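Hi everyone, sorry if this is the wrong subforum. Our group has a chain we'd like a structural model of before ordering constructs, and none of us has done structure prediction before. Sequence below.
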Amino acid sequence: MKTYNNSKTIISKTIVLAIASSTTIATQVNAQAQDADKIERIAVTGSRINRTDVETSSPVTVISSDFITKSGYTSVQEILSTQPAAAGMSLGATSNNGSGGSATVNLRGMGVQRTLVLLNGRRMVASGTGADSSVDLNTIPVSIIQSIEILKDGASAVYGSDAIAGVVNIITKKDFTGTEVNVEGSITDKGDGESGGFSVLHGTELANGNLVAGLQYSNRGEVIQADRDFVPPGESSYIPEGSLGGFVPDGEGGWKERDSSYDYTEDSYAQTPNELISVFGSYNTELASDTELSVDLMYTHRDSNQQMAPQPASIDLAVCQTNAQDPSSCIEMGDVLIPELDELLYKRRMTDAGPRIYKQQTDTYRGSIALSGILDNDAQWDISATYGRNDSKDQVENSIHAGNMQQSIYNHQDIWFSGDPIDKDFLVSEGIIYTEENEGGNEQFILAAGYNGVTENDIGYAFGAESRFESGFYTPDEVTQAGESTAAQQDPTSGDYSVQSVYGEISLPVTDAFTVEAATRYDNYSTFGGAATWKLGATYRFTDTLMVRSVAATGFRAPSVSELYGGNSGSFDYLDDPWGNAEDSQILVNYTGDENLKPEESESFTAGVVWEIADGLSTTIDYWRFDITNAISRVNVQNEMNKCYNGDLAACDTINITPDGDLSAMTSTLTNIGQQNTSGVDWNISYSVDIFKVMLDTTYLIEFEEDGISYEGTIDGNMGGYSQLKSNLTVSADVTEDLNLLYTANYIQGMQGNAWGEAYKTDDVIYHNISAAYHINDAWQLTGGIKNLFDTEPEEVPDGNDMNTVPNIYDVVGRTFFISTSIKF
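Answer:
Right subforum, don't worry. Here is the predicted structure as tokens:
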């Protein structure tokens, strides 16, 4: 790229040097200082204008590859989940129930679908098990990452839909020569969760350009829930011997009230197995002195597993009313048990079939080709094409066919009501056990063209156009679609849409100290029409060491394929039945989509200060606020249940339940009536002296309100955690030229909750982590450390979504040792 002569302020130099020397820093761009009076124009996350100044009006956190290695992180999701700006609920390695093996990021707790994920500034294809609305972060191998930039500001005017809460831009390694081999492994102090992998990265000069190719393999081991002391025994009313109308066999030919429960933690994962193979490559070359060709290719194959306790089967059985009734269509109870009833509910934990084993095989492909160049007026242009595709097949072994099970009970009442174990071969012969087979996928194609430059008066500008096509589908097993499975019924999903966009951006230096930035964008969707957004920002330098900044912006999020075209999908949510009719805390809720959904709309505002306090000491502080209207969301089912119980008939109708507590058809439909408001403060301070570098990164949540309910400082199994204070401390010490020590601490303030009418509170939690990196020689480095040094256990959350806690918020694996070594040649 072309270099330009441009004097830099002291504050610019300070920020750039802080990035180069620190592990993470809340600043504007990952840049390397060139010469004090000469710097290359660079792309800045959150702007289309390539610029020389590193401080823009929007706050960005940068995480370097060096920090990732020293911290023992093996996935992008693990890196992002520890950030103070992350909140709410997301998916990761410890999401055993319903994750599909995917990993996601949730900035500000505003929902994973409201955080845009980019790779080298371009969109990643939605990925997972089909018709997904977010990116599976497993598809991006850690070994290819140069840095991760987190834009903590609304950016729809620059990037379009989905950037309401912010942007995660993953920058990959380029201009690399030589070969680097890395091998890593980890294990918990309990001797389980063994994980490991290796990567090979090779770069060479080729045909007047640079070719980089790599391979990464990783294998994450499982941890069983019951192997952790803090996990209480599960208590399910679905028991292996079966129950009928709440009664169980008494062993003497009669029945008695159920007086036992089933511990489902023995068969459920706390950490889920995951095997990844990624192949990637990039090629950059100058076709002419002013034209460059760039090609990026990536492929990731994922084999993932989750394991849950055997299927809880719930079967409605007709009771024979007369002796003449066909016994193959009802059960003959005589006068043993409530003969007046027409129907009885039979519940059985199908331990004889074995645990439910969920398996996913996903293949994600992405390719991007771009031409860029510099004109005689020093303006820069680029055109690009990006294609992404995700194919998935997933299975659920030891699923139960409800219709066949019902008929088998009618035909073999003596076997099913004996209370004895049932031979698995019998279940197979009766067609009761089957493997659920589902498939899905996502596809994306983008054409883009842009033009940007700087005038003689230092006015920066950019404009361009994009055309994007998105499609997705998910086809459940035919048995599931027909409602014949003992799991929840689910309809297929299929659909697509296209969008054409134009945008413009300007950076205007009003004075030497005062700069105004503005951007606007118009997107025209095939599904709902047009949406216009804008952004207005400013920076003002009081001195070379003190700058203030602010951004006001509008944003939007278009409904995804699954939201528009998704049919009924059942989910067993953890809920408190105020009537007391439900025997378990997991209650079936039917989720449905709506083709008439409109886009969400948002307004955001940030204001902050960047200050170099003294030599080696700098700080940033930013206030932020996001307001979403017409939010695509589902009503809070628990809240509507409570209102219905208290006599609000409209609430009963909203979720399709009856005033007397009939929850059998409870439904939650996506609508545009939602509203979300959140605000807070980000504060970062970094200090570097002699061999030490210290950084404190903190987020204070002032408010988080959704549909009139305040969640700041609360936690539960459905919404996740909204701790009001989260902070990361990093201390790095270059003990010698070859030895670096790193200490990090992750602080989560305690939160409040309410489970089944009883208030509870979690305590403050601090996770301590240490590591050391030693350069044996110029080519060979050894890194090792301990995550969760003091084996801090997760806080108890009575209405948590697994293990009596919220695994997304707290560490449920425990103390983990890791080691890695890399060799360059």
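For your construct planning: The chain has one domain: 3-559+597-634+670-824. Residues 469 and 498 are 4 Å apart (CA to CA).
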